[in-house]
Design goal:
The protein has 865 residues and is an alpha/beta fold. It contains 25 helices and 29 strands. The strands form seven sheets. It has an eight-stranded mixed sheet. A six-stranded parallel sheet has the order 10-16-14-11-13-12. Strands 19-28-27-23-22-21 form a six-stranded mixed sheet.
């Protein structure tokens, strides 16, 4: 290790107990030169930016957030212990651990430094149903503890089963490996109870340990926690705290009692972070951002789908999104079996028929149970994967209906066992035919599964033992017997309701019989306990449901994919949770989420309607790429100048030119010629062109047929050194856009357009303040069907003295592009979208001043010195 590396390593160690700024001041006290301190700061900045800008997991981050965390380091104890434990578990391979490490590091980097005087972070992590979110936030807690956070509160759903499961997992994976580092306030049984004595004394005594508290989102428990914490205000002022809200869309939002309690607990910590975890973030994304609530204003992280995970689109397929080739869209595995409508009454009574109801184990349910036992026997032949095997029967929310299944299923099992032992040829022929049919429809030998087929003759000897081991378990809010995977291998047919539809993992779930209806996306999706990992039996899961439910899940798969693409698409820094609201597609028969959770939602436009799109990334080392864009821009301006009916407004005194009423086909030609950087994900030429063409051809007609094209630069100074000419009579001085520190493959200027630029073709004289909402309203009134295209000539050097910025230093001048679309009317699409209402959000933005040739010359001289 050279001297600089050793100095940098010492700086990183200091960051555990000091902010980066404090650490730099400390090392300067020991005589470090300003040049060495600057190099250390620059390296730290590069490493934090590298973590922040990683594609996976994707994220949207609030502007101006300074990141500080660069990953685990020597001396950490909690994360290495967790890593070693997971490595010993067969389900975690090296690739999975690397993904977990990267994802949890990125989330920690979004938090504030624990030594900041005060902070309040609001974030959201979006995973997949049954995808390992608990392990992800366990890794987050471990790394945050190593980094200096002291108090950890986990809100673990609303049911005892999930709270208990979470407590046990955190104790086994987080606490037990480094027991001297932790003090759990809660245990597996019960819930939070205030420890005896003064809480201030308790925290003082435990000051060298991290404190962990796993609490159900239950009003009495949350009240006890709040009242206990209120007795130690002095301690809490200096306690870096992280609150994890598991199943963050449930009870935390729009609930009259739980939501205020959660917010009051968060507010008790002047140095606290709140992160919601959920696979169904629909409600979280529709919160009013201007209310003092749990809207993820600081960041949204989109966890990648883990390898081997069975998700919605894998099972059900989905519809193509804008710009996708239908041939490339998954159509789902052939694992869904239809329950005929006429059989529903056999398993699901009407509202007035619940009392005395007795289900019939016949038809599709009979086949599903048979297949479950066959699949479990086949898994025993293979001898791999989790030792448990579970079947889910979910037909009703009523506990009386659940209880009505117990005796019929037990009678069915006994009768099956007797026939099996008697080697009844009719039953054996039926089972053989079922097995052959199912393994032919979903061959295990296919590349997606990589499993050898288990012949019927091989599984038959295991079948009797499977049936003997099979228990019928009722798991609901009233049942005394619950699914318990801690005491040994389980084979169970689980009949239940809401306790089986949130967070709780059904280990080894192989078969689901599901005819329970739901009215919202999140409720329906969370009931899909069949999502998850199926190591050793990826070819065997089956789901029995109605045709309507299958179509609903296919629709939700489309909604999920679209939502995640929004999050991925707007990773560029000028799109944040406060400037871009993720859109959620509506359905005629389903609500996105509960009505109370949608009260602040507004209708959103499809695709680009009402959006401001701008280039942020450029290839600064590719002269052919840069000159090609210059030629494309010059061609567009020259054609627009000479088109009949177009109007040229020469505002060169203000560094502006506006060309009005440009035909849309010229804009489409330009979008064909202009080359976007692949990292400018919201600037996809194909999507932009298809959106324009769809609007032009829409039923209402007229939309986007005419465009305004604006050139935006600095006023002409008279100096040829700063002048840029697009076409005769259209020239301005170049603008300056410095870049963020980044790698050589892409220069990120962060923000190209100001709000006033986005309204350059509008009359803004009557506006007291130019806000996004005011701009959209002005365009709706003045140019309801006309979009704006802006062109910026960016100086190739673009020197700067701004902190955390660098000169652009391109090999040629850069053409920046901005697009502003009017809010789409009803003709935009037959589909409705909803989003959070950002119209009242006030967001700071970069202000771009005017630099003349004298100032440019001065900056260049300074740069040279």
């Amino acid at each position: 290790m050279n001297e600089f590396d050793a100095q940098y390593d010492a700086f990183r160690k200091l960051i555990k107990s000091q902010t980066p700024e404090q650490a730099l001041s400390t090392i300067r006290l020991f005589g470090m030169s300003d040049d060495l301190a600057k190099r250390i700061a620059e390296r730290h900045q590069r490493e934090t930016i590298e973590i922040r800008d990683k594609r996976q997991p994707g994220s949207v981050v609030r502007n101006n957030r300074e990141t500080w965390y660069v990953g685990p380091q020597d001396g950490d104890r909690c994360w290495p212990a967790l890593h070693d434990l997971l490595k010993r578990e067969s389900s975690w391979d090296d690739d999975g651990l690397r993904d977990l490490d990267a994802a949890s590091t990125k989330v920690v980097s979004m938090l504030d430094h624990p030594m900041e005087k005060s902070f309040s972070t609001r974030g959201l992590v979006v995973g997949y149903v049954q995808s390992g979110k608990t392990t992800n936030f366990t890794a987050l807690i471990a790394k945050a503890a190593d980094a200096g956070y002291k108090f950890f509160i986990v809100f673990a759903g609303i049911h005892n089963g999930l709270r208990r499961q979470t407590q046990i997992r955190l104790e086994r994976q987080l606490v037990d490996p480094v027991i001297d580092q932790w003090h759990p306030l809660t245990g597996a049984e019960g819930d939070f109870e205030p420890p005896a004595g003064n809480p201030a004394a308790f925290f003082t005594y435990k000051s060298q340990q991290h404190v962990l508290c796993v609490v159900k989102k239950n009003v009495p428990r949350l009240t006890k926690l709040k009242e206990w914490l209120e007795k130690a205000p002095d301690y809490l002022k200096n306690c870096p705290t992280l609150i994890i809200d598991d199943e963050a869309d449930q009870a935390s939002i729009a609930s009259k009692r739980t939501n205020p309690l959660i917010r009051e607990i968060i507010d008790l910590f002047p140095r606290g972070g709140y992160i919601g975890y959920t696979a169904t973030p629909f409600a979280n994304l529709l919160i009013d951002p201007t209310a003092k609530d749990l809207y993820p204003e600081d960041f949204i992280v989109n966890l990648p789908k883990p390898r081997g995970h069975f998700g919605t689109e894998v099972l059900f397929g989905r519809e193509p999104l804008d710009g996708e080739d239908p041939q490339d869209v998954p159509d789902g595995y052939d694992m869904i079996r239809i329950v005929p409508e006429e059989e529903i009454s056999l398993v699901k009574p009407g509202r007035d028929e619940i009392e005395g109801f007795s289900p019939e184990i016949d038809g599709a349910l009979r086949v599903a149970v048979h297949y479950f036992w066959l699949a479990t026997a086949a898994r025993r032949v293979r001898g791999r994967g989790v030792p448990h095997s579970t079947m889910l029967v979910h037909t009703s929310v009523s506990t009386l209906v659940h209880e009505s299944f117990k005796r019929p299923l037990e009678r069915f099992r006994s009768a099956f066992s007797e026939l099996l032992r008697a080697e009844d040829t009719s039953l054996l022929d039926e089972l053989r035919d079922l097995w052959e049919e199912e393994t032919a429809r979903v061959p295990g030998e296919e590349p997606d599964f990589g499993e050898a087929k288990v012949p019927f003759e091989c599984l038959l000897p295991k079948l009797a033992g499977v049936v003997d081991d099979c228990r019928i378990v009722l798991d609901n809010s009233k049942s005394l017997e619950r699914l318990d995977y801690e005491t040994g291998p389980v084979v169970a047919i689980a009949v239940g309701g809401n306790t089986l539809s949130r967070g709780l993992t059904l280990e080894g779930l192989a078969v689901s019989y599901f005819v329970r209806g739901a009215s919202t996306y999140d409720t329906l999706l969370q009931m899909g306990r069949w999502f998850g990992f199926r190591e050793g039996y990826a070819d065997l899961p089956r789901i029995w449901m109605t045709e309507e439910l299958r179509e609903w899940f296919r629709h939700i798969a489309t909604v999920e994919s679209e939502m995640r693409r929004d999050i991925e698409l707007y990773m560029v820094e000028d799109k944040t949770p406060l400037t871009f609201a993720v859109r959620l597609r509506n359905h005629p028969a389903l609500r996105i989420t509960a009505a109370a959770k949608m009260r602040d939602a507004v209708k959103a436009s499809a695709s680009y309607g009402g959006q401001r799109v701008q280039t942020s990334y450029f290839r600064t080392d590719d002269s052919e790429w840069l000159r090609g864009n210059q030629a494309a821009a010059g061609k567009l301006v020259d054609r627009a100048l000479n088109i009949a009916g177009a109007r040229h407004e020469d505002l060169s005194g203000a560094g502006r030119h506006v060309l009005r009423d440009v035909p849309y086909d010229m804009v489409l030609d330009f979008l064909e010629d202009y080359r976007f950087h692949e990292k400018s994900m919201d600037c996809d030429a194909g999507l932009l062109r298809s959106y324009v063409e769809r609007r032009v051809k829409s039923r209402g007609g007229g939309a986007l047929k005419r465009w305004n094209v604006a050139v935006i630069g600095n006023p002409l100074s008279g100096s040829p050194e700063t002048r840029y000419e697009f076409a005769p009579r259209v020239a301005v001085d170049r603008v300056f856009r410095a870049k963020l520190p980044s790698g050589p493959d892409a220069a990120n200027i962060k923000t190209l357009m100001s709000r006033r630029d986005a309204g350059v073709d509008l009359d803004l004289s009557t506006l007291d303040e130019v806000t996004e909402g005011a701009l959209k309203q002005a365009r709706r009134i003045q140019c309801p069907e006309t979009a704006l295209l802006t062109l910026y000539p960016i100086d190739r050097v673009s020197p700067t003295k701004r902190p955390r910025r660098e000169a652009l230093d391109a090999v040629d001048h850069v053409i920046g592009l901005g697009l502003v679309f009017p809010v789409a009317g009803g003709e935009d699409s037959e589909v409705e979208w909803y989003s959070a209402d950002l119209s009242n959000v006030v967001v700071e933005e970069d202000e771009f001043g005017v630099l003349g040739s004298d100032e440019l010359e001065m900056l260049l001289e300074d740069d040279a010195r």
